[in-house]
Amino acid sequence: MVAYVIIPGIDGSDERHWQSLWEKRWGASAVRIAPASWSRPDLPDWVAAIQAAHETASRRDGRVVLVAHSLGCWAAAHWLEQARPDAVAALLVAPPDPRGPAFPREAAPTFRGLSARPLPCPSLMVASDDDPYCGPEASVSFGHGWQARAHLVEGHGHINSGSGLGDWPGGLELLRGLVDR
After folding, report:
1. Could you confirm whether the keyword Hydrolase appears in this record (predicted)?
2. Does the pTM of the predicted model rise above 0.70?
3. In angstroms, what is the C-alpha Rg of the chain?
């Protein structure tokens, strides 16, 4: 068994988002972070929320997988660098480029100075070749910086509910590959 920590991006994931659909599928095996700053993300608040969710998930199963989307990727990476937990893997989907023109600078100023550094666990970074928040070159460079396996998909935008993926079977297959490593 595996427990999952769901780490959405800014404003959380709506009910049509693949993260929300996966959370329903996993039931008690999934724990969603609950920061106080969903709309104006504060990195220390999000890191504390990940820590709390990880503690809850760890009590359910000894092996925990972080499932992060968008800004949640940066919060997850930052938490991993600090906490360096055992028995963790990370799926990082559609990280935005903190230096890119579409980054929410005003809403998330504490996330602006982050850079991708090696993560202490098996990781997979998934991005789309047409993400409006991050070009494919930057996405791949984040994957390399995190020492995560990088996987680019075609034509899925920001890989969110607006991408029309439903419960994203291709993403579940990528996750299985990460978990089974």
Report:
1. yes
2. yes
3. 14
Please, which contacts does 14-23 make with residues 24 or more away whose CB atoms are closer than 8 Å?
14/161, 16/161, 16/166, 17/69, 17/160, 17/161, 18/159, 18/161, 18/165, 18/166, 18/167, 18/168, 18/171, 19/67, 19/69, 21/166, 21/167, 21/168, 22/67, 22/167, 22/168, 22/172
Spatial separation of the C-alpha atoms in residues 173 and 176, rounded to whole Å: 5
CA distance 3 to 59: 9
Residue 37's CB is within 10 A of a number of other CB atoms, namely: 16
Query: Shortest CA distance to 40 belongs to which of 81, 71, 17?
Result: 71
